[in-house]
Task: inverse folding
């Protein structure tokens, strides 16, 4: 599981994996930010962690180091759970069909960043979240699951992001 921040989706994945019969286990949590809060959580859950700041490295070099860590951990799938880096095409292509991303919108709406602000500004009744296969085109791979959440009149991008995360945390079997 690759993260860049809080790692609440990663934590939901970890706890879902502890339920009897869950078909996966989390073998590594890796981040481009050594300060990512999710790393400390994963370490305290006894999960292997890896971090490497991307600053000063080419995208290809940073991706290669992340991919090496993933392979060394024995992972056969990668989940991008709030991993806020665009991946190089080669990395994505080697994992095609085995790399998932959690995106905070009802794709194909609002690919990219600031999804919550854009949904509010558009006057949408609902926002939501999507799990999709990762392909070289950003946020464009096949959608595997979606949950819609209402946008309320008082919502700010921050309050909406929190509600979307609550829905995201229910996505994992
Ligand atoms: C999640 O809401 C996820 O959908 C979003 O970042 C948040 C990470 O939260 N991902 C993206 O915006 C990817 N483009 P978390 O670190 O608490 O799981």
Result:
């Amino acid at each position: 599981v690759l993260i860049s921040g809080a790692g609440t989706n990663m934590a939901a994945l970890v706890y879902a994996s502890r339920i009897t019969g869950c078909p996966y286990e989390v073998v590594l949590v890796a981040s481009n930010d050594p300060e990512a809060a999710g790393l400390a959580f994963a370490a305290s859950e006894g999960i292997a962690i890896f971090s490497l700041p991307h600053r000063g490295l080419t995208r290809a070099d940073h991706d290669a180091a992340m991919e090496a860590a993933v392979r060394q951990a024995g992972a056969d799938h990668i989940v991008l759970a709030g991993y806020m880096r665009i991946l190089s095409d080669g990395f994505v292509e080697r994992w095609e069909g085995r790399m998932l991303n959690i995106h905070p919108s009802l794709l194909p709406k609002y690919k990219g960043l600031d999804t919550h602000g854009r949904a509010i500004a558009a006057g949408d009744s609902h926002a939501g979240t999507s799990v999709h296969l990762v392909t070289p085109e950003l946020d464009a791979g096949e959608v595997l699951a979606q949950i819609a959440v209402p946008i309320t009149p008082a919502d700010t991008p921050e309050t909406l992001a929190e509600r979307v995360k609550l829905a995201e945390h229910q996505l994992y079997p």
